Amino acid sequence: MNKKVVAIIAVVLVIVIGGSVIYWQTHVGNRQLFDMKYSFKRAIVKLPNGEVIDGKLNSWLDFDDSDVIQVKIDGKTYLTSYVNVVLIDE
Description:
The protein is of the alpha+beta class and 90 residues long.
């Protein structure tokens, strides 16, 4: 094989492997994040009325350039500031 063919094959492999890694990282765990995987099992949320919710974490999502976090605990969704949430990996 000549050098051009080897270079093209190498580029294609990098794209395919890179795409696979990105897909895996964004679809594994209960939090999808492009550059890393964060997985937590439990969350504690403080509500404005002082009530504290503690339970099994189904999923969570934070928003770029914001202090807002959405957590789903035992099937119920809460949207609040991250200062009101503790995520725990037991």
